[in-house]
Design goal:
- This protein is an alpha+beta fold.
- The chain has a domain at about 1-100: Gcn5-related N-acetyltransferase (GNAT) (Aminopeptidase, 3-Layer(aba) Sandwich).
- It is about 30% helix and about 35% strand.
- The protein has helices spanning about 10-20, 25-35, 80-95, 110-115; strands spanning about 1-5, 40-45, 50-60, 65-70, 100-105, 120-125, 135-140.
- It has a seven-stranded mixed β-sheet with strand order 1-2-3-4-5-7-6, with helices on both faces.
- A hairpin with a 2-residue loop joins β3 and β4 (about 65-70).
- It is globular and about 40 Å long.
- Bound molecules: coenzyme A (COA).
- The site of coenzyme A (COA) has 19 residues, from β4, α3 and α4.
- Its EC number is 2.3.1.-.
Length: about 150
């Protein structure tokens, strides 16, 4: 598996994965991220095919935020999500971040477990955060800056 920066040619694959796992973000966001914070836009490639992506940015000084992390359903459970998250954490650390924050749907038990496995813990709930009225679970990871 290859973990590398997003390139504009990856756009159709990223949008396809987004549609399959979330189907809620405007594709325009992803081009915006590429133009404004490309350092935090990373893809996982397997046999020449983009199978997952993560998008993150520095929200405040010292705080990295994960906007979106997704792996194509056919490739989940093979370590791609973990590899993408670790790469992004390394980038945030290099930018001096001390923590990473994110929101995840309360019903998304699998993703919450995934993040907990990577050291995230729940810091709160935002009621009706999503357009369909679902609550978001806020999670945080403290970065070990000595690593
Ligand atoms: C959450 C997600 C990114 C994880 O990526 P992934 O490539 O499947 O994850 P990994 O293969 O690195 O798995 C790491 C851990 O995830 C969890 N996990 C993976 N597959 C799982 C499954 N079928 N059921 C429950 N937990 C599972 C486990 O804790 C696993 O640990 P293990 O390897 O010790 O079993 C991926 O499942 C996904 O795209 N989900 C849909 C989109 C989403 O929910 N994104 C997160 C919200 S922003």
């Amino acid at each position: 598996m290859l973990i590398r920066k997003f390139e504009p040619e990856d756009f159709p694959c990223v949008i396809d994965i987004e549609r399959q796992v979330f189907n809620e973000h405007d594709p325009y966001f992803y081009m915006q991220f590429y133009e404004t914070c490309s350092d935090g836009f990373i893809v996982a490639e397997m046999n020449g095919l983009v199978i997952g992506y993560v998008v993150g940015f520095l929200a405040n000084e010292g705080t990295g935020r994960v906007f979106s992390l997704a792996v194509h359903p056919a490739y989940q459970g093979r370590g791609a999500g973990s590899a993408l998250l670790k790469e992004l954490a390394g980038i945030f650390r290099n930018f001096g971040a001390l923590e990473i924050i994110l929101e995840v749907r309360s019903s998304n038990t699998r993703a919450r477990k995934f993040y907990e496995k990577h050291g995230f813990y729940q810091t709160g709930i935002v009621e009706k955060y999503y357009n369909d009225g679902e609550n978001a679970c806020l999670m945080r990871l403290r970065l070990n800056t000595s690593k």
